[in-house]
Design brief:
The structure is a homodimer. A 4-stranded antiparallel beta sheet of chain A has the order 1-8-3-6. Chain A contains 7 helices and 11 strands. The longest helix of chain A is centred in the middle third of the chain and has 27 residues. In chain A, strand 4 and strand 5 form a beta hairpin. Chain A is elongated, with a radius of gyration of 21 Å. By secondary structure, the first copy, chain A, is α+β, with helices and mostly antiparallel strands. Chains A and B meet through helix 2, helix 3, helix 4 and helix 5 of A and helix 2, helix 3, helix 4 and helix 5 of B. Chain A binds a DNA duplex through helix 7.
Chain lengths: 217, 217
DNA sequence: CTCCTTTTGTTGTAATTACAACATACTTGT
DNA sequence: ACAAGTATGTTGTAATTACAACAAAAGGAG
């Protein structure tokens, strides 16, 4: 009995439909010891993984020996699903066991095989994948847009403007504290604080903690 | 007779299946005059557009009056498909007619309606959307990864490392000239040239025009 | 080959940022 | 209310970058 039934990948699917998925996508469970390599940059993969137990890290290791940890993937979360869909895309990151863990792998195979099937479970599954992918898209393009400007000021204004659009108001709370906002915008925290102060002195914005107001006049 | 049959959205679909799509997604054609607003930031949309004639620009206009043009969308290309899929996501950009143009709109409605249909045309269509979305994801996360480092040097090395992984070799051509690479990495061109020279003098890489070699020893 | 255009490399300067160190304000638990 | 810990703001300095102006190299047309 797997504990994967409540993953968003299987959203709105009956237990029977999920069983179909597990069978048809030839799911297999595998265990990894801490620090063991699960997927390696440079490879391609037809499988994506769902974490049943433990956690994995997504990291980048270049040939000059620099390591960057990009993210952690924990319980019931998944990884490499984009690469599994696009079978020819080479992985640009390593996936490594952050601790002893159990991974459930799904073999998507080529999309083509799924296309010709017109079963309901497959339709639901693909719709879920599409929703997940679209969501990731919004997050990624948002961030990409916010860190494109070269100055801290422009990054701040770009970010605040989009939040304002999302909240339909020039006054709103943001979900970050200063350090998190700095990390999100890829700038130094103190430099961020400094620029926020300037923007307030110049009357462009007004803020207190994570509450912001945009002053356009 | 629309000229949309060869868009990647309808890849591997028969003419009959495409007709189904056009009907079921209640496609409607609409004309816009140059500079007319097609979709506005802050709104949500259930429709996405396919350009039949002319072209549109995706732009960002903040409340302080700054305008940034993000991209052009030309013939047979489409826009806002991600937002149409996620009906609650507010548009963060404006879409405006770059010249007089004809747009074919598709009403995706909620994904839920499509999920319960298990017709082959729908399956194919969604698979195509998924492939497009996954691809966009790879492009976006790649770029996001490359412009995250704060120094030019790190951005260059990050980029070269991924190309090396994709080409399965430490020697390869890149598809950019200096100006394009600078734009892609969001840095100044001359600063980029300068840093490339340094990297060569230090024996980290060797390059001539758009041919690169990574020297790891 | 020569002229012209485009691309790429180099250098100096001004602006911006990261970083460190510290001051102030805010939280939390007792 | 107090103390300890955390978050935020401030300042100065060193490092990095953008920008501009120019030099050198490469490519193309006649």
């Amino acid at each position: 009995m797997k504990n994967c039934y409540h993953s968003v990948i299987f959203k709105d699917m009956t237990q029977e439909e999920i069983e179909f998925c597990l069978t048809e996508l030839r799911s297999t469970e595998k265990r990894y010891k801490k620090d063991e390599m699960i997927l390696m940059a440079g490879d391609t993969t037809e499988r994506f993984g769902l974490v049943l137990e433990g956690s994995v890290t997504i990291e980048s290791n270049d040939i000059w020996g620099n390591r960057t940890i990009l993210s952690h993937v924990g319980n019931k979360q998944f990884f490499a699903e984009t690469y599994a869909l696009l079978e020819d895309e080479t992985l640009l990151v390593d996936v490594r066991a952050n601790e002893n863990c159990r991974i459930l792998f799904f073999r998507i195979g080529s999309l083509k095989r799924l296309r010709s099937s017109n079963e309901l479970w497959a339709m639901k599954f693909i719709c879920n994948m599409l929703e997940i992918s679209a969501h990731k898209n919004v997050v990624l393009s948002g961030r990409s847009f916010h860190i494109s400007p070269r100055t801290i000021r422009e990054r701040i204004l770009s970010y605040l403007n989009t939040v304002s659009l999302q909240k339909h108001s020039t006054e709103f709370d943001i979900p970050f504290d200063r350090q998190q906002l700095a990390d999100y915008l890829n700038v130094d925290r103190s430099a961020l604080s400094n620029e926020l102060s300037k923007l307030q002195r110049e009357g462009v914005i007004s803020c207190r903690k994570n509450h912001f107001e945009l002053l356009s006049h």
